[in-house]
Amino acid sequence: MKNVELLAPAGTYEAFRAAINAGADAVYLGGSAFGARAYAGNFDKEQLLEALDFAHIRDRKVYLTVNTLLKENEMGEPLYDYLLPFYEAGLDAVIVQDWGVFDLIQKAFPGLDIHASTQMAVTGCASAGLLKRMGATRVVPARELTLDDIKKIDQNVDIEIESFVHGALCYSYSGQCLMSSMLGDRSGNRGRCAQPCRMKYDNEYVLSLKDMCTLELIPQLVQAGVDSFKIEGRMKSSEYVAGVVSVYRRYLDKYLEYGKNAVKPHERDLISLSDLYNRGGFSKGYYPGKKGRDMVSLTKPNHQGTCAMEVISSRPGSAVCKALVPLNKGDVFDLEKEFDYTLAGAVKPGGTVTLSLPKKYVMQKGRKLYRVRNNSLINDILDRYTKADCKTAIQGAITLQPDKEASLVLWKDDTCIAVQGETVMRAMNRPLTAEGVQMQISRMNDTPYILENLEINMDNDVFLPNGKLNELRRKAVTELTNALTARYKRSTDNCSAQAALEWQHQSEHKGFTGNKVNVMIDSVSSDCMDMIRFVSSMDGIDGIYIEAEAFEDSKELAAMVDIIHKDGHNAYISLPYVVRGRTSEYIEKLAEDADMINADAWLVRNLESAAIITRLRPDDRIITDAGLYTMNSRARMRFDIEFPQIITDTAPYELTVNELLQLGIGNSELMVYGRVPVMISENCVRKTRNMCDGMCGVTKITDDRKRCFDVASRCRNCYAVTYMSDAVSVLDMPEQIRRMAPGSWRLTFTSEDKDCISHIIRDAILISEGKNMSGECYTHTTHGHFDRQIL
User: Fold this and answer.
1) Dihedrals φ, ψ of 73, to 5°?
2) Which of 478, 476, 480, 477 lies closest to 407 in space, CA to CA?
3) What residue numbers bound the domain in which 561 lies?
4) In what residue span(s) does the Peptidase U32 collagenase domain sit (predicted)?
5) What is the tens place of the pLDDT at every residue in 683-698?
6) pTM for the model
7) How many C-beta atoms surround the C-beta of residue 359 within 10 A?
8) Are residues 530 and 619 both part of a single domain?
């Protein structure tokens, strides 16, 4: 049976130590920059270097998260200088989202493994195969994949698969969520997500998914081809990390040694995981192929705890409760927002507890009370995994011969060192004993080692002071540590600062050069056909994007393309926001019918569709949408290398005017009006509310600040797109548009009426021609990030 890695998170050095001590094979963590958990404690340079040695001595690995999008001024030297000391110290791999970062690391740091982050939204064989060809050694697929989806990747692509098995689930596909960014400038793509999915919408937490627990799925996950079991939680405490790791370590080892019949989770372990953290209970994530209401924690967005007591009687100021699970002294119960209750003593299941409550407070009989801190469990974890570090077994041999230097050899596996000490003397009255030598040399308390076996070669009448034996031991331990860590060290001779700096690009656009106006109908609603025909009838438009999913079949799609062509416009086919499972077959069918459809280009929104179209239609032109991020020029150039048929990319939604100027968008398309898709999700609000009828439609949700969002159900391929409440518009900033000089402009319409559409198109054409717009102000619009920098 193949080896399976258990991969733990660490947001602090304490959590890192706890993870290793609890049995993690590898730990992923963030440094002082470029990581997707900016609010975790993270590691400074010295801590990270120390962590590398700590792990490598114990044959464990460390992966560094560099999984954010980098702006133009952050590429090159800043990133190179940041990574160089960790590369030299033996960093095992980097986890990457940004294509520019991928390219820089690959060229500047030879031999450093690159893991494609879940932020890349890898959803199938095509995208996994693409990243394999690019040089990635591992992919972290989207958390939305089923066991069957993962198995297909494993069977068709020779690449390691790392999958999340426990912890929080984002509502949106990772890397495809702009909600936090657009609402409050805290970008998830920069590690600063404010978690708007954990907020109330229409008085319920309709976007807050339960945490995932896959303890029962260990056999199926291994059989599907998962090489690394990844636990989420870089924002969590050290006791959480150690507790979860220890449980998964135990069951993973059982499976690897005894097979699937040995993996039958005990109730106490499931309770322990629940005690450590859960949101409204657990789900098995998307692995079983199901989604919907059962995955959502509608009433509580944070730690719910474990159902541990039931009220059996109550009166004002007190309540009698029955214990449902073993209770411990110091356990904490979350009774109301206003107060918690700490248990005074241990109680067995079935025993009773009398709670002292605020006066006139009455609890309803039958109410379940949830324990949010299992005090005994936490203390046990802290005692086991944080007070002393795990040790690695070594072997030794000592030679003590009179009138010769003492010699001590220590080794671990194939790493061996030998040191010499003071000259051994002949004993005058108290010669050394084997037991005494064994005791002195085995004193490894303050070291990372435990001496399993010591071979002692000495005469019967020799003597060496204990202090000299201790000195010999310390010298040998230091040498062994140096030798063990040296196995991982790299020379920086092969590193290339020049490779890091090449392709640095400064835009020198002077004046307005772009004059093409393209219109996107980003809708699959029943009236979108009428919208397309209406837009096509207008003059001054260069091209029209139409959603492939809005059409019944390729013939209907081809007919609409023909109408657009006859009206004198280019026709671009917008492919689905999500491509996985059966949707891949849908894309392949479109590619098969491409000659009949006769579109001028494909708009690809994810790596999977880009890779499929490139493989099946290598001569067709493609346009990359904003979800394929080109936040820096190096990323854009790497896309051009991998997809030479790209005719333009879409300028990122998260850059300011000045940042777009620095990037240079003379060959890019800029959305100057439109509602930004802020979430692409496998779950759908309509299904969560038991309203799913399989028909495409829009559901409105409203947050506590009365901001309304449109959730569009894309039922053909069963996913949803959530749009910003207000449209982003820079049509009232014509001078800034001219300064940025985009290659083309995009107007995106989702639910606007014809009057609004014609008015906006007319203004855009006027501005593109260097004229003044009509002067009418648009309501419900924002400048987005054009004048607001993301954090």
Assistant:
1) -80, -5
2) 476
3) 516-675+727-773
4) 369-484
5) 999 999 999 988 899 9
6) 0.95
7) 7
8) yes
